[in-house]
Specification:
Blueprint lengths: L2 H29 L7 H15 L9 H24 L16 H12 L15 H31 L9 H26 L10 E4 L5 E4 L4 H10 L20 H26 L2 H28 L2 H4 L24 H14 L14 H12 L10 H21 L4 E2 L2 E2 L2 H26 L2 H4 L6 H16 L14 H29 L17 H35 L5
Antiparallel strand pairs: 1-2, 3-4
Helix pairs in contact: 1-8, 2-6, 3-4, 3-5, 3-17, 4-17, 5-6, 5-7, 5-8, 5-13, 5-17, 6-7, 7-8, 8-9, 9-11, 9-12, 9-18, 11-12, 12-16, 12-18, 13-14, 13-18, 14-16, 14-17, 16-17, 16-18
Length: 575
């Protein structure tokens, strides 16, 4: 890895470390109901919302009630978003006169945005009106991220409360996440993006004449406001089909850096929220360290593979050795504005954080370079992860880690003073088993059926990787793609839509159930035999558990896709 890569990766990592602490402590104050500098602006709005909705924020909910509120809120949102797309041609703010969206695509998009996946099988600038983009997609960018934040806070309460029956109030957490966290940051971020040249208007698309005397359509619209929340809320869905590789979404080096920071900001900050609410900041640092090291391992492999490139191109020149590197590295599918290092950082971060936005095309990465984002998806995106859901997933892995550590020393495992017993472990295993099931089963169907095979653009292992990546991205609520797959068909729209729903809500319920089980338990004092969960030994063991669970579950599928494609590439066979 060259000095340029080291500097860029180190700078990005240091910025994330620096901003995560104050942001995490701020969120801890927000959800504890403590006074913040934004209270004068948002407390009156908060009270009005509760009054209009008939919500008593002081009434707390059991885990079942909390989960029910979350599911019902998501169901209503999905129905409204589906209807908005189907009626789009009759509604205002549609200067291009775009018509109704098909049934299967509307279902897929509604499922995608209410699950924080933001998978887009359509071309946004030629499909969605301004009203649909704002009132439908951007709105759900906010509330789906807020629902994820609410989940994380509820799970934390289950672990840190000394004894009780409730996990808080979903409507209180949802409102606070939106008003105190997402809205103010996005307002500032949007203004910066506008300053840097990102459009924010309601103008009709502009028709211009090119130097070759052809006519080109330049899409405009309320772009900046959607880009801000798509990155901060780890949503990732683009206003344009090229996503963050498009110069209107990501015009400068500054916007590229700020959008990258936004992708990790809340997920990293929540680790410190966890430590603060647990009363031991070292607990948060331990989770942050595990996530950070996993990120660094991934980005180094991705960058190395992309800078090495395809050795078959090197063999066309003077160097005929098997270890030759492609001159300039693999620039296929990458923006020259950003280059290989920044593309590798973005690909790793966006799949670590369940964001899904891209500033380069993952389908054009080398086999091992493309394996890194695929691996990140298969780890359950617990490396900083989706807003809230990533922390919740890592806490489940921490529960599994202390259980394994307890087995090693013959003691009942404990985490934050709460004993981990058979009920919690059954729920944790359910969480771990659901994820591969909703990926591998539909992948097998698609890879062996005419309808599934019709969508792939490449033969052999790369075509299989395109299918595997699509279902992995959907189940992990990521939304990025190996874009060689033509997924805007009824088969893929329906199957991927259901996978998104299962991957979001069937994973949330066991996590909330674990928190609901632990909140009833009294915290036991530490003893000489207590396994410390705030030190380096725990961090190493946690990383090992995360990697082993992912590797044992998905290694066979990697072998059929990226691994065999890499071996074939080294032997001179390309797909």
């Amino acid at each position: 890895m060259n000095s340029n890569a080291i500097i860029q990766i180190a700078l990005f990592s240091l910025i994330i470390i620096a901003i995560s602490v104050p942001l995490g402590l701020y969120m801890a104050k927000v959800f504890a109901g403590e006074r913040t500098f934004l209270d004068p602006a948002f407390v009156p709005v908060e009270r009005l919302i509760y009054r209009l909705c008939g919500v008593d924020p002081a009434t707390e909910q059991t885990w079942v009630e909390y989960a029910t509120s979350l599911l019902l809120f998501s169901l209503v949102g999905m129905v409204v978003l589906y209807a908005l797309q189907r009626l789009q041609g009759l509604l205002p703010l549609n200067p291009q006169g775009l018509g109704a969206i098909s049934t299967d695509s509307s279902f897929n998009t509604a499922a995608s945005f209410i699950t924080n996946t933001n998978w887009q099988s359509y071309t946004p600038e030629t499909t969605m009106s301004y009203l649909t983009q704002m009132a439908g997609l951007a709105f759900h960018n906010f509330v789906s991220a807020a629902a994820g934040l609410a989940l994380a806070i509820a799970v934390i309460r289950g672990f840190v409360r000394r004894e009780g029956k409730t996990l808080g109030n979903f409507w209180y957490d949802l409102t606070r996440a939106t008003l105190w966290v997402l809205v103010p940051i996005c307002v500032v971020f949007t203004l910066i993006l506008i300053w840097q040249g990102v459009p924010q208007n309601f103008s009709a698309y502009t028709q211009v004449k090119t130097l070759e005397h052809a006519t080109q359509t330049i899409a405009q619209g309320p772009v900046a406001s959607q880009i801000a929340i798509k990155q901060l809320g780890t949503n990732g869905g683009g206003f344009y089909n090229a996503n963050s590789a498009h110069p209107y979404e990501n015009p400068t080096g500054l916007t590229d850096l700020l959008e990258l920071i936004a992708i990790f900001a809340l997920g990293a900050g929540l680790t410190h929220t966890f430590g603060q609410m647990a009363g031991d900041r070292r607990q948060g640092w331990a989770l942050f360290a595990a996530m950070g090291l996993l990120f660094l391992m991934g980005v180094m492999v991705a960058n190395w593979s992309e800078q090495r490139g395809n050795p078959q191109f090197a063999k066309l020149g003077i160097d005929q050795s098997a270890t030759a590197t492609q001159s300039g590295g693999n620039m296929e599918g990458k923006e020259v504005r950003f280059g290989i290092v920044d593309s590798a950082i973005w690909a790793t971060a966006t799949t670590d954080a369940s964001n899904g936005s891209v500033n380069s095309m993952h389908d054009s990465f080398t086999p091992l370079g493309g394996l890194v984002p695929l691996l990140n998806l298969h780890l359950g995106e617990v490396v900083f992860g989706g807003v809230g859901t990533g922390l919740a997933g890592m806490i489940v892995m921490a529960v599994l880690t202390v259980f394994i550590a307890g087995l090693m020393v013959g003691r009942t495992p404990e985490y934050l003073g709460k004993k981990i017993q058979s009920r919690e472990m059954k729920l944790a295993m359910l969480y771990i088993l659901i994820f591969p099931a909703v990926i591998l089963l539909p992948t097998a169907v698609a890879a062996t059926s005419k309808l599934g095979l019709a969508g792939i653009a490449n033969p052999g292992p790369h075509g299989f990787s395109e299918i595997l990546y699509a279902y992995s991205s959907s189940a992990a609520n990521n939304g990025s793609a190996f874009a060689g797959l033509s997924a805007n068909t009824p088969f893929y729209n329906w199957t991927l839509g259901f996978v998104m729903l299962f991957g979001r809500f069937m994973m949330m319920i066991p996590v909330l159930a674990i928190a609901g089980s632990l909140v009833h338990k009294k915290a036991v004092p530490e003893s000489a035999g207590t396994f410390p969960t705030n030190g380096s030994v725990f961090v190493v063991l946690l990383i090992a558990v995360v990697l082993i669970v992912g590797a044992l579950t998905f290694f066979a599928s990697w072998a059929l896709g990226p691994v065999v494609e890499h071996l074939a590439m080294m032997a001179g066979h390309l797909y």
